[in-house]
Amino acid sequence: MKTPTRALALSVLIAMAATGCAAGQNQPSSSKPAESVTELAPNVVESGFNGKGGNINVLMSSDFQTLDPGNSNYVQTANVGQLYYRTLTMAKETAGQPPTVVPDLATDTGKVSDDGLSWTFTLKEGVKFEDGTPITSADIQYGLERTFAQDVFTQAPQELNAALDDGGYKGPYKDPSAVLKAVETPDDRTVVFHLKKPFAEFPALASRSNTAPVPKAKDTKLDYTNHPVSSGPYMVESYNRGKSLKLVRNPHWDPATDPNRTALPDTFSFSLSTSQATISQQLLADSDPNAITLDSNGALQTSDSAKLADANVKDRVASGLLGCNDVLSLNTEKIKDPDVRKAIALALDRQSILVQYGGRRFGELQQSPLNAKMVGYVDPGLDIDPAGKPKLEAAKKLLEGKDYPKTLTYGYANNRDAFKNTGTVVQQNLKALGIDVQLVPIPAPNYYSVLASDQLPDMGRSGWCGGADPSSVRTSADPLLGPNNDGTSYGFSNTSRYFDPEVSKAMYELRNTAGTSEELGKKWAEEFNKALKAYPIIPLIRSHTNSVVGSNVRNAQVGYFFGGIDLSIVGVEH
């Protein structure tokens, strides 16, 4: 997404993603931190395949939030988006490791000016849209300009935009005469970005979908999701919202310009309304040898976990550590008192929540959405138990004499039992505090749109996958709990709506602070930890996912950022 997908030796973002499911009996049982199981060696199914042709059937329990690269902060869209759009740079996945940022539409990962305030990219020769029209720097600029229209595209990624010296630009629609001065296009192949302050990880930001080219004449605003114009190896042949999507080869894609995508299958056929239980059973039984899924943790159900060791299944399991973390997000506009939020955190039986995700085979409990491998990481020192056991008496003591909500809503995406069952655990835990939790199902395709709307529940699970650069504290800390682009309110990916006059101001000022990655990483971590100790979010689980594929599927690897089968390299025997 970060990388950003939850990405560099430089690496990529993402933003909001899903985590593990399926069963497991090996939950932590002591008060000590559970031994890490997410360092298990990743498994790639039938690697080294290079045969072209055939069709991949992608089974999904719900539609994509959007296919529009300018309105997407979702890992599933980023994954399928690899097939029909390209960006200046690209986060290239390696199973079990943070992605590496490599050139995509650009000839390299950018050239920075001596003062660090400008980055210049040169487009490769011969890159074209699906109709044969050459892709120019103006198409990159317009694609980026659209993402500033947050009144139209409410889910547009903002990490790159926040770094630009944008002069208050609001997109191309309200005032078509307005100019985004932060981006220059001196010729058809050159794009120059002007930054507020130096940003060493900028090549990772350039891998975000903001830099996907969009031809201005083909922009249909919100309807663009129905047929985004392809710059990648595949293009949309048909799209029946909520039911099916079919991608076919783009005849004007030149593999000589694109060493990152193997584009092996002739077609990808997506089924967008198959229940997760059915997907799980079909994949385990190998009833469709050409099938895969992009659903969280391979759509596995809790009762199916033991089947992963079956002789006819084990060789078809792609697995690996993800950069994705799940948190319980608390609506700070409803639950205003930090002590009340902390009491909720202390009362949670996170050990039982891990069981709902499938146990330790599918992840481990976390004390922060950040991790010790990030440059400048500082342990937050949270009072929640590392092994996930509740501290009920401490929670009750915090609530003494407090006026707090006695009824709260827990919203959950309705496509996965683990999300609902987590709500049941929360419901049971908070009952001991005298809080009645009402479970509210939300259609999965609309889940994050609801979290960004006036219908935001009081509590809800959120996922975060790494950041534009998973080695950087900033590219996770800022989106998760930082302010908006002008520092006046909560930020776009800040689902808890956390905003503190002092901490948020400090984060805003850090965006305009120069320094080394180590210096700035520590400063970001310190401010983030101040926010985290106010418990706007409660750390839950970092995912280790398992995804079963059909017996004809080849090169199946779980993307660290995508959290599902990496579509850019997958193939099929036929």
Automatic annotation (TrEMBL):
Extent of the signal sequence: 1-22
Any matching Pfam family: SBP_bac_5
Alphabetical list of Gene3D superfamilies matching this protein: Dipeptide-binding Protein, Domain 3, Periplasmic binding protein-like II
CDD domains from the UniProt entry: PBP2_clavulanate_OppA2
Coiled coil stretches, renumbered: none
GO CC terms in record: ATP-binding cassette (ABC) transporter complex; periplasmic space
Entry's Gene Ontology molecular function annotations: peptide transmembrane transporter activity
Keywords assigned by UniProt, alphabetized: Signal
Highest taxon in the source lineage: Bacteria
GO biological process: peptide transport
Stretches assigned to the Solute-binding protein family domain: 100-470
Name the record gives this protein: ABC transporter substrate-binding protein
Highest classification ranks of the organism: Bacteria, Bacillati, Actinomycetota, Actinomycetes, Micrococcales
